[in-house]
Every structure is written in C-alpha cells, then in structure tokens.
Fold:
Amino acid sequence: MSTLQTSKGNSPVEREKDLLFSLSKIVESLSKGARREFAEEFSEDLKEFLSRTAVHKAINGKIHLANDTILAVVLTNPRAKKWVMQKAREEAQNVLRAIEALQSQEDKMPMRWEND
Structure:
C-alpha cells in the first residue's frame, strides 16, 4: 500500500492560495488614482462585474473600485494582471524615492534632542 505525500507548500491548491493572497495585497496597495486609471483601461472588463453607471463613476473618480472588483478582473484578464503589477511597482518605487529623499534630508539636519 503506497500513499501519496505532498508538501503542503507545494500543492497546487496552496500555490493558488499564495498567488491569490499576493495578488490581493498588490491590489490593496493601489492608490485612488491608479484605481481610476484601471477603470479607464479595463472598462469593458468591469462591465461584467459592475453596472455601466458604476463603471462610468469609477472612470470619473466619483467612486473608487473595490479590491474584490479589481481582483475579479485581474483573475480573468492576464493583461489586467500585468497592468496592476506594473502600476503597483511604479507606486512602490515612488514611495521608496520619497523615503530616500526624506532620509537624505534628515541625515543633513543636526539632531535635536527633545530634552534639551
């Protein structure tokens, strides 16, 4: 009698869960502006999940797309997945540049102690 042993981390179900979790985190990080751009770029895909009115409002920035709505499009459209990953990368790089600039300014400033 033989048994099939699979590592929990290597099972297809676990890999799919990990992928979905990662995509969810990426989608959560998108700014309101990125969500509006997404609505413009993928308006036809969004019509499968939202009313035409809701899509129009999202394009005009009157409402912001929910994480689940963006994720639904990403899971059905490989181009949307690529777009979201690229946009999240760009936004993350902007944040890193801001952190570096702030750190550079702080390094140049003399330290002030609160108890002086």
User: Anything to note?
Assistant: The helical segments are 12-28, 32-41, 43-46, 52-59, 67-76, 78-108. The mean pLDDT is 89. The chain has one domain: 22-106.
